[in-house]
Design brief:
Distance between the termini: 15 Å
Number of helices: 7
Strand content: 5-15%
Order of helices and strands: HEEHEHHHHH
Structural class: mainly alpha
Shape: globular
Radius of gyration: 16 Å
Number of domains: 1
Helix content: 40-55%
Number of strands: 3
């Protein structure tokens, strides 16, 4: 199991609210989505709000020697399920792709931060499951991750409710 499979499993454990009951994401159905019964309990109202959050996070992580804590599972769920604002000028697929690109950049910056400042020295206190897996494998200092396809696959599986549990 690779790190992206672990990340996908963490997304499936995210608790959502359907008809006033908290259930894990893997238990929702297409009907729940279509009838808009699901509250995903996310900080963002739309994909545009998520893009702004990711852009600011990307700048903050790039300029920091510390690991910036962020809810990677919620971000993936947001990319999969949030809608665009009703403004007509923004295509949902384009906005989702921008989110995926920003998330890829943030993950790359995070891996670089871990390998540059923490690897072989000490384990940072504010790591998440993604970091735990990264820390188990040696990284080059200037690593360039090609993780966009992995992120797109997670978002596709979430969006299409392909949970395979």
């Amino acid at each position: 199991m690779d790190v992206y499979e672990v990340l996908f499993q963490k997304c499936l454990e995210h608790m959502v609210i359907v008809d006033g009951k908290k259930i894990p994401l893997w238990a929702i159905s297409k009907e729940d989505i279509e009838e808009e019964k699901v509250c995903f309990d996310l900080e963002w109202e739309s994909l545009q709000d998520l893009v702004i959050f990711l852009y600011e996070l990307k700048i903050e992580q790039r300029n920091s020697k510390e690991l910036i804590k962020f809810p990677i599972e919620k971000i993936l769920i947001g990319i999969a399920f949030l809608k665009s604002k009703k403004s007509g000028y923004s295509n949902t697929d384009d906005t989702s792709n921008i989110c995926i690109n920003y998330l890829s950049d943030i993950i790359t910056a995070r891996i670089n931060c871990i390998s540059k400042y923490y690897y072989l020295i000490k384990k940072p206190l504010n790591t998440n499951i993604f970091d735990e897996v990264i820390l188990k494998f040696p990284q080059k200092k200037d690593i360039r991750t090609n993780n966009i396809e992995d992120i797109k696959e997670i978002v596709f599986k979430l969006k299409n409710l392909q949970f395979d549990i």
